[in-house]
Amino acid sequence: MKAITIWQPYASLVAENFKKIETRGWQTHYRGQIAIHAAKKPFKEVDFLDNLLELQSASNQKPDEAQAVIDWYHCNRKSGFQTSAIIAVAYLEAVIPTEDLTDEGLLCPVEYALGGYGPERFGWCFSNIKKLENPVITNGKQGIWNLSPSLTVETLKQLLSRDAQIVAQSLFGLGKNSSVTFQTPSRITPRTSIAINELINAGMVVRDMDWHESIRVFKGTENIGNPRRDFKPVEENEDFAIVKGDAA
């Protein structure tokens, strides 16, 4: 799973859905699910003063939205912001030059106040942002970086419904090299079908053609809560045993 490290309080602003565009001096061709990691760098209030002034200006146009961010900031700044941890998962939808965002009027005043929209920069546009209930502690890196398999599981399992967790537990308990082949699609209950689709969308299992006939489990994972060190996504390792039966 890909990740990006962001300084506080901007990482938390993303996690809280106040900030949906992260501005950078470089772009990426990657699109897809991405973990939001709060940097180790301690938060200094002086670094956020310019943003507060911009928010005050934005309150003339978007008073409710701007005040919500200001209130949230003052409520949380004394207790401090989480650092050195994955705090949310989002979908990187697009990367757009900041000139295009500002020239075409695509930015709301609050979003503008929370970013750096100077020339030759890029807006990384996030959607489907989900805050983690339990931050996943780890050091960050520069650029886009890859989470380890164990951190990926620890992060993604927090986003699963209870049904999906139960199905994942059953699937990952099948063994080190596992696929599941369903004997007939009719044996899959709607509830199980929804749970499996959730696992597929989370990238924790993949499908072969029609997933009603066969799905593949990540290699080397015997338990969703205790991934092995040799855990690899199936697209990187294709040798799987076939297990007959219904995962439900």
UniProtKB/TrEMBL annotation:
Naturally occurring in which organism (per UniProt): Thalassospira profundimaris
Protein name (database record): Uncharacterized protein
